[in-house]
Write a structure and sequence with these properties.
The complex is a heterodimer of chains A (308) and B (264). With 308 residues, chain A is mainly α. Chain A is built from 13 helices and no strands. Chain B has 264 residues and is α/β, with parallel strands linked by helices. Classes of the chains: A mainly alpha (308), B alpha/beta (264). At the A-B interface, helix 8 and helix 9 of A face helix 2, helix 3 and helix 6 of B. The structure holds adenosine-5'-triphosphate and magnesium ion. Adenosine-5'-triphosphate binds next to strand 3 and helix 1 of chain B.
């Protein structure tokens, strides 16, 4: 610096400070734009969903929409009850979660507490491969492999059913759950673990009585995220669960999910502006509301955990 | 380095004997040939400058090092009256920890309720009867001088307590399982003066129940609470003896320098 040591030591160089300030404000502005763009994207999706759905609700009353038991918007005798699609979505989701949550947590506990570090380096990438497989592949795997195998045990199982779609979806979601839960478990402090061991607890007791409960907020986050993932999953259910919208709470039936319906109509030739076309947006909006409610519940739990 | 010991005049029961104890982190030797006895129902203080191996020694006594890799111990620590060598690899660390409790430098309550914290060790030991657990919980919290402050909120999260309360909770948690020997590693270093003096009083009171080995940087604390003091320097035990003698007539010039504040 030209004006010598004194300004470096006093740390005061107006020109340099002004320069730093200018640069910082530019960076802050760019960061602001970046976050604004994601916000805008989300916001415009919501706006489109709502505006495109509004005409639908001019023809169909909200009450009918939420209470009618049949969904046949593309038929001549059209029925607009969303319940069948919701039931299909919820059923495949709970089957998936029944698989993904326990196995994800057990795998996370193993990876975080028990495994040798060298082995972890092998297992973790392998798990991530599960998440990298295209969902179409999972879909045909469910339809062409899992269903026939299940039919050996349950001969009445139809070729299209929510059971195998849900199971395969569950396996697909395991890596999401395990990696989120593992992160939460590994962030539990060494001191808390030592306290448990010092009281004479075994590794298993420490893991399940101390570390896992201490990671509960992470587990709730994993639960919320993976349910959202299951609710929104499309290809597997479209391929393996069938396309018949019907109120079905037993996974041993075929049924259509919200997402599968969207695919079906998008692939068809419903003319722009027709009620069939609008129904896609309505299904999308319904799905959006379901995930929104879920996230609000998650938010509430996190608040609860923090305030304690 | 000759070890100067001003032997206690009266014969006292010994809880643990540390014999020719060496400790290595990898290649690095952290504790060098340490010998001393921990007397039953007495408080023994471990003092010495930072990094001299106090925590390393203390943590060997409940085998906490076993949770990690890359260490080696030599010598023996005999626990009386069973006469078992705590360091023996064939002895299950859990067995040792069932008898030797520990309170750490930083309060580390579990993110559970106060009650669940106190009874954790008892549940680990298979106690299930709610009435008995509640009774033990009350006794331990009373012994740790915390009962009056928390008796109305035993079901609240322990992490919501103040630092000093958390540390006393950790002491209650360790006392609940009635250890033979209680290790305290700088239990007051993270606390304010009032909480510190509360815990110091507690230590003095507790020795009727349990033998205590306490690491401290606070020389007043050692002088005030302990019956015996061991002074360590660079991994070696320089001097061990009755606290009042060690503080008034230190035999070794290093001890004298340390307690008069000339180094460390
Ligand atoms: N996990 C470890 N790996 C390698 N070296 C270690 C480890 N823990 C401690 N040491 C070293 O061993 C020596 C003794 O450490 P120790 O923690 O026992 O000291 P201390 O007397 O408790 O110090 P303080 O008063 O600061 O707590 C130090 O030189 C330290 O750097
Ligand atoms: Mg230490």
């Amino acid at each position: 610096m030209a004006n010598g040591n004194s300004s470096i030591i006093s740390g005061y160089d107006e020109k340099r400070l002004a320069h730093v300030k200018r640069r910082e404000s530019w960076v802050a502005f760019i960061l602001f734009l970046a976050s604004l763009s994601t916000l805008l994207t989300v916001f415009s999706i919501i706006v489109i969903l709502v505006t495109e759905s509004l005409p639908f609700f001019k023809t169909v009353s909200i009450i009918d929409f939420l209470t009618q038991k049949e969904w046949t918007p593309l038929f001549d005798q059209a029925q607009y009850g969303i319940l069948p699609l919701i039931s299909g979505t919820l059923t495949t989701t709970w089957v998936a979660m029944l698989i993904a949550l326990p196995s994800g947590i057990i795998i996370a506990a193993y990876l975080s507490e028990f495994i040798r570090p060298s082995l972890r380096e092998i297992i973790k990438p392998l798990l991530e491969i599960f998440a990298a497989i295209p969902t179409v592949v999972y879909g045909y795997f469910a339809l062409l492999f899992v269903t026939p195998v299940l039919q050996k045990f349950f001969p009445e199982l139809p070729g299209f059913n929510m059971f195998s779609a849900g199971i395969v979806m569950g396996f697909m979601i395991i890596p999401y759950v395990s990696s989120l839960v593992e992160d939460a478990m590994r962030s539990v402090s060494k001191e808390v673990r030592e306290a448990s061991f010092a009281l004479g607890a075994s590794k298993l007791e420490t893991t399940f009585k101390v570390v896992l409960p201490a990671a509960s907020s992470g587990i709730i986050a994993a639960l919320i995220l993976s349910i959202s993932r299951a609710l929104g999953e499309t290809m597997i259910v479209a391929i393996a669960a069938g396309m018949q919208p019907q109120i079905a709470f037993s996974p041993f039936q075929a049924a259509q999910t919200l997402t599968a319906f969207i695919v079906q109509v998008s692939l068809g030739d419903a003319p722009h502006g027709s009620i069939g076309y609008q129904s896609i947006y309505v299904a999308g909006l319904t799905l959006f509301c379901m995930t929104l409610i879920l996230n609000l519940i998650g938010f509430y739990f996190r608040k609860q955990a923090q305030s304690k | 380095m000759g070890l100067l010991v001003n032997e206690p005049n009266a014969v006292k029961a010994i809880k643990a004997d540390v014999k020719n104890f060496n400790f290595y982190y990898g290649q690095k030797q952290a504790v060098k040939d340490v010998n001393f006895s921990v007397y039953q129902n007495k408080v023994t203080a471990l003092i010495g400058p930072s990094g001299c191996g106090k925590s390393t020694l203390l943590r060997s006594l409940n085998r906490i090092h076993d949770l990690y890799k890359g260490f080696k111990t030599e010598g023996e620590v005999i626990l009386h009256p069973e006469q078992i060598n705590i360091l023996d690899k064939s002895i299950d660390p859990t067995f040792v920890r069932m008898r030797v409790g520990m309170v750490f430098q930083k309060p580390n309550p579990f993110p559970k309720s106060i009650y669940e914290n106190v009874v954790y060790g008892l549940k680990i030991r298979g106690l299930k009867k709610r009435a008995l657990l509640e009774q033990k919980c009350e006794e331990s919290l009373k012994a740790a001088g915390l009962w009056d402050e928390v008796k109305d909120r035993l079901d609240q999260l322990a992490t919501g307590l103040s630092g000093g309360q958390q540390q006393r909770l950790c002491i209650a948690r360790a006392l609940a399982v009635e250890p033979d020997l209680l290790l305290l590693d700088e239990p007051t270093s993270a606390l304010d003066p009032i909480s510190t003096s509360v815990i110091e009083d507690l230590v003095i009171e507790l020795k009727n129940k349990v033998t205590i080995l306490i690491v401290t940087h606070n020389l007043q604390q050692a002088a005030r609470c302990s019956d015996f003091t061991a002074f360590m320097y660079l991994g070696e035990l320089i001097e061990f003896g009755e606290t009042n003698k060690l503080f008034t007539k230190p035999q070794n010039v290093k001890t004298e320098n340390y307690i008069t504040g000339r180094f460390g």
